[in-house]
Amino acid sequence: MIQNKSPKKAALYSAILPGTGQIYTNKYWKVPVIYSGILASVYFISENHKNYILYKSTAINRINSDNSDNLQYSDSELITLKNFYRRNRDVSYLSLVGVYLLNIMDAYINAHLYKYDISDNISLDIDPIFNKQAMQLSFTLNL
After folding, report:
1. The pTM is what?
2. Running DSSP on this structure, what letter comes out for residue 138?
3. DSSP letters along 86-136, please?
């Protein structure tokens, strides 16, 4: 007998610690995928933030007449690079939130579909029904 899994419990588990809802619903293979997405997002947040701070501080130093940096960029290129890395950092934050929310939704949906049975008896029967007013069709789908 296959036991039902609670969707609320699966979602709560994944909200508290990503991947535990997938473990609860016996989808163990999804846990490394979730943590890969989280780690990739954190990595790109870190790298983009580091470059954003570098180009921002260099641009501010040049505005304050400190040209001691060794970068071969003009002032307008520094501002463009600063904006580029800030945007990428913000997109990386959004991807982190997206992976986290998809983790919760996946656990919730897996718990709903936990007991879903896929059998070999899939069929579609079409039976015409005749009466005096109109012809009707009856559809029966067996999954």
Report:
1. 0.76
2. E
3. HHHHHHHHHHHHHHHHHHHHHHHHHHHTTT----S--EEEEEEEE-SS-EE
14 three-state secondary structure: helix
- Residue 31 is encoded by which pair of tokens? 């846990």
Residue 70 neighbours by CB distance under 10 Å: 5
Longest CA–CA span in the chain (Å) reads 95
Q: How many residues does the chain have?
A: 143
Question: Angle of helix 75-112 relative to helix 7-16, nearest 10 degrees?
Answer: 150
Q: Among residues 66, 45, 46, which one has the least CA distance to residue 57?
A: 66
Q: Give the pLDDT mean for 6-30.
A: 96
Q: What would the two tokens of residue 135 be?
A: 């012809």
Element (H, E) at 85: helix 75-112
- Radius of gyration of the chain from Cα atoms? 27
Q: Given pLDDT bands bounded at 50, 70 and 90, which one contains residue 142?
A: low
Q: Angle CA(98)–CA(9)–CA(21) in degrees, nearest 5?
A: 50
